[in-house]
Amino acid sequence: MAASWFRQLGLRSAPVNKSFLLKKWYLDCVTTAGDAALIYLADLSWRRLSIQYSSLLTLRAGEMQRKSSLCRRALPARSESGIEVHAPQLGFRGTWRPLANSIKRKIFECEDGTIDWQCFQPKAQVELCFASHQTIRGLGYAECLTLSMAPWKLPLNELHWGRFLTTQDCVVWIDWRGAYNNRVILYNGNDVEAESVSESAITLFDGTRVELDRETILRTGPLGKTVFPTVPGITTILPGRLKSIYETKWLSAGFLRSGDQVRPGSAIHEVVRWIE
After folding, report:
1. How many CA atoms lie within 13 A of 259 on its CB side?
2. Angle at the Cα of 156 (from 242 to 197), degrees rounded to 5?
3. Which of 9, 50, 139, 190 has an alpha carbon 20 to 30 Å from 72's alpha carbon atom?
4. What is the rounded CA–CA span in Å between residue 170 and residue 187?
């Protein structure tokens, strides 16, 4: 009976394994016209579950569309020339060509496991070709998180994450707040210190400032209502603390102000709050 249920949902039943392992890719592209595409590709193994999940969010000419799939497809293919994603289940093929060096950090480590962050392309030239024969090109980003511990066990209250790109600049930030605090700010590949990080601005100690307009909300709400309903049956087995995590994600136009220079750019960024 259980095996039949897993097959109906497009999931694989694996030998009982209480350990948790999630590999989650995030890739994006924003055009000069303000169109955007956000791609998530995840591979989860937990208990008797083995899931590959993929989703695509597009914003084109002001119209937002979402697609998701449980079809088992290969994760992104990497080579010296960049990253390629072929996702017929979502109706697109994409290439990311690096414009900046990759970055790797161990974001968190404890007895329960680790979180490794690899930003393969903090800044990339991206081309996405859709099954509708439309193509978008722009600057983009690609990262992969590997979690060997369940996210609902993280000692966090709030997370700020984002990436801001101009033709000349690349700013990436991760700001964990709670019982465990960790802030990573990278400006053109260099670790820098920030005076403050908020949902509308990143201010560095040298006075450099990224300002974000938060004009377009891409997604907002508890994960139990925004993300997990697209994975049939999974909400019945996930802890309530995970389903109640509240996320708001924006596409922002913005500016980087450094001395007397002001450079326009765009950001994808989010604030995630763990609700008890």
Report:
1. 1
2. 120
3. 139
4. 6
Neighbours of 276 (CB within 10 A): 6
Global model pTM greater than 0.85: yes
- Residuewise pLDDT in 10s, the chain (276 residues): 333 333 444 444 444 345 889 999 999 999 999 999 999 999 988 877 788 889 999 999 999 999 988 877 667 999 989 999 999 989 999 999 999 999 999 999 998 899 999 999 999 999 999 998 999 999 999 999 999 998 888 888 999 999 999 999 999 999 999 998 999 999 999 999 999 999 999 999 999 999 999 999 999 998 766 665 566 555 565 655 666 788 999 999 999 999 999 999 999 999 999 876
How many angstroms separate the CA atoms of 241 and 257, rounded? 39
> What amino acid is encoded at 264 in this protein?
P
48 and 14 in contact (C-beta within 8 Å)? yes
Tell me which amino acid residue 18 is. K
Which residue type is seen at 72? R
| Residue 92 CB-density burial (10 A; 0-12 exposed, 13-18 middle, 19+ buried) | buried
In this structure, what is the dihedral angle of CA atoms 13, 17, 18, 19, given to the nearest 10 degrees?
-110
Coil/strand/helix, residue 242: helix
As a whole number of angstroms, the distance between CA 22 and CA 3 comes to 22
Residues 242/231, Cβ–Cβ less than 8 Å: no
